[in-house]
Design brief:
This protein is of the alpha+beta class and about 650 residues long. It has 4 domains: about 1-170 and about 605-645, Orthogonal Bundle (Triger factor/SurA peptide-binding fold); about 190-225 and about 495-585, no CATH class; about 230-255 and about 380-490, no CATH class; about 265-375, Chitinase A, domain 3, CATH 3.10.50. A 4-stranded antiparallel beta sheet has the order 14-3-16-15. Strands 10-5-12-11 form a 4-stranded antiparallel beta sheet. It has a 4-stranded antiparallel beta sheet with strand order 7-6-9-8, with helices on both faces. The longest helix has about 35 residues, at about 380-415.
Length: about 650
């Protein structure tokens, strides 16, 4: 566990810093205010609007946060309509809780705010050896996020206040063991069943539709053979990255930037330690924790007698799989990479010291400090590539407003082509085929924005193939597009789709045959149970479905246990029909006390979540929440998942 945290210490520090505060803190008060001032309203809470600009900024920063946490993940997955809608729902939720906190006069105390800031690992990493906060570094860190200490602390307080709205509900949930066991036993119940499936594919070969039947099916289902209007488009994107490539970095500016940021750029002190962990969950019974502590103290006595045996004892006794095989070695790490009790112990030790038993949420640790890597101030030359990139980024952001005006004017004034704007600003003209009014899998993210598609398919854009206006699709990002080829919506001719018509006809009729024969067999077997030809029995439960369709599992578990054995029919829709005989209920085996405790805890957590959700929905109705953007359909979600987009 510590090994994983240590390897990704920088990412963990950044992620924890960003996660501890509301989403709008991610882009600062100024950025938040700008977002609030522009764009159409996409949602309303208690009469207060959440605008398109605010949504765009919040999602951009959410993507950046996820990119930092998961550097190897394709960020296109986070640009899907579903991911964007999730960000909007989160913004609405935060607004609801903020309004509720204000109405209830809930305000985090100064003591609670101070404790939250003290627990923030990133802020803790800025403390000097004497425990005082490096205020300059603190201000620089916040400035990089567009904030001042005052605005950051005000927003942390607001977030803590909002949390109190639901804490009163979740903290009052009681789940007695008897109640939990009753629900869990029913949920995890095992039943022995036999299933006879009647699959459409087994009946397809019996069907030979005539042309007349296919034409009749085509006429009755013309809605399934519509080809939406679509267009081939070309487009150009102006963003900070496209400007950045043309920015030259002045040596004097680079040196000044280095001097101003020297403290921030200095590497932090790192320490190398080994540990022996005797695991004990923080919510484990007191007796179990006492037993783990006693074992740790006994091991500590052995280590004290023979310090050289530390690695061997770690290999044999440590419960940390990431480090035990390496004699407990955790390699180098800085402040903020480990849990606080562990970190406090390590950074108070001298090289070669062995700690007393240290308690954390993971259990009990014996720590040996093996090395110290002092803080190091890197030279300008060592930092040159990184600093040049930062200066170039800042200069590109500064120039964006000026270049954006030029871009906006060029695509409007020379509206019959994107080439003048592309040539003048050194932008690439890109193309996309079969673009429709609604986003489709594989569509470039900048074109998938509703306002871009609306501009592309405006009447003037279609009829005259003019450039669209410069559309803002995100912070410091503009796009203009134009239609190259346009195909209006139409019903495909029968001859074009005859093969598809035949496949659909056979699928529908073979499913009907499967259902018919399945229902006939069910009736016959109920009349004469001895004649039932069923395959071998299998045992199913909700957590072990044996690859049976969900409808089969659900039907089998809904049958009253007092009526067994019993036959039931299950309509599987396009998958045909199933006849299920439920033979008996089987006792659940292999449930240890530890598993039972864990399940009860999960049940209590689920109950708490359900209560919290119900209360939030009540608040949403009370504050008349309106989300004006349509939620992406399930079909759209499946298509995006299938395409990897």
């Amino acid at each position: 566990m510590f090994e994983s945290i240590r390897k990704h210490s920088k990412i963990v520090m950044i992620a924890l810093f960003l996660l501890i505060i509301p989403s709008f803190v991610l882009f600062g008060i100024d950025g938040y205010n700008r977002a609030m001032e522009k764009g159409t309203a996409v949602a309303k809470v208690d009469g207060q609007s959440i605008n398109q600009g605010e949504w765009d900024v919040a999602h951009k920063n959410e993507v950046e946060r996820l990119r930092a946490q998961m550097p190897n993940v394709d960020v296109k997955r986070f640009e899907s309509p579903e991911a964007r809608y999730f960000t909007l729902e989160r913004l609405v939720r935060e607004k609801v809780l903020s309004v509720a906190a204000g109405n209830m006069h809930l305000r985090a105390s100064d003591q609670r705010l101070a404790r939250s800031l003290q627990e923030n690992p990133t802020i803790a990493s800025l403390r000097r050896p004497d425990g005082s906060l490096d205020v300059d570094s603190y201000r620089q860190l916040l400035a990089a996020q567009g904030m001042t200490p005052e605005s950051f602390e005000a927003n942390v307080r607001a977030d803590l206040s909002s949390r109190q709205v639901l804490n009163g509900v979740t903290g009052s949930v009681i789940a007695p063991p008897a109640q939990a066991d009753m629900a869990l036993n029913a949920f995890f119940e095992h039943r022995e069943i036999q299933v006879a499936q009647f699959k459409p594919a087994d009946y397809a070969s019996r069907l030979t539709p005539s042309d007349a039947e296919l034409e009749a099916f085509y006429k009755a289902h013309t809605g399934q053979f519509q080809q939406a209007e679509h267009a081939d488009v070309e487009y150009v994107v102006l963003d900070v990255d496209s400007i950045k490539n043309s920015v030259a970095v002045n040596e004097g500016d680079l040196k000044t930037y280095y001097e101003q940021n020297a403290a921030r750029l200095a590497s932090k002190e790192e320490r190398r330690a080994s540990h022996i962990l005797i695991a004990a969950a923080k919510d484990a019974p007191a007796a179990d924790r006492a037993k783990a502590k006693a074992k740790a103290e006994a091991l500590l006595a052995e280590v004290r007698k023979n310090p050289g045996s530390f690695a061997d004892l770690a290999k044999k006794n440590s419960d940390d799989p990431g480090s035990a095989a390496k004699g407990g070695d955790l390699d180098f790490f800085a402040r903020g990479a480990m849990v606080k009790p562990f970190e406090d112990a390590v950074f108070s030790m001298n090289k070669g010291d062995i700690s007393d038993v240290v308690e954390s949420d993971f259990g009990y640790h014996i720590i040996k400090l093996t090395d110290i890597k002092a803080q190091h101030q890197k030279t300008l030359e060592e930092m040159r590539p990184e600093l040049e990139a930062e200066v170039r980024q800042q200069e590109a952001q500064r120039k964006f407003a000026e270049v954006a005006d030029t871009f906006t004017n060029l695509v409007y004034e020379q509206s019959d082509s994107l080439k003048p704007a592309a040539d003048r600003l050194k932008l690439q003209i890109r193309t996309a085929k079969d673009v429709t009014r609604l986003p489709t899998p594989g569509l470039p993210p900048v074109l998938a924005k509703p306002k871009v598609l609306e501009a592309i398919f405006a009447a003037d854009s279609i009829s005259k193939k003019r450039n669209t206006e410069a559309v803002e699709v995100g912070p410091n990002q503009l796009v203009s597009a134009r239609i190259v080829n346009y195909t209006p919506a139409r019903t495909q001719a029968f001859d074009e789709v005859k093969g598809k018509v035949r496949d659909l006809w056979i699928a529908e009729h073979s499913a009907e045959l499967a259902r018919k024969e399945g229902a006939e067999k069910l009736a016959a077997w109920k009349a004469n149970p001895a004649s039932a030809a069923l395959p071998a029995a299998l045992v199913i439960s909700r957590d072990a479905t044996q690859k049976q369709p969900a409808a089969v599992v659900d039907a089998a578990l809904r049958v009253r246990a007092t009526n067994l054995p019993v036959l039931v029919g299950v309509d599987l829709g396009s998958q045909g029909y199933a006849v299920v005989r439920v033979n008996k209920v089987l006792p659940r085996e292999g449930v240890t006390d530890a598993m039972r405790q864990q399940e009860r805890a999960q049940y209590a957590q689920g109950l708490s979540s359900a209560e919290s959700k119900a209360y939030y929905e009540l608040l949403a109705r009370q504050f008349k929440v309106q989300i004006k953007t349509a939620k992406p359909s399930a079909a759209s979600s499946e298509e995006n998942a299938a395409s990897g987009g």
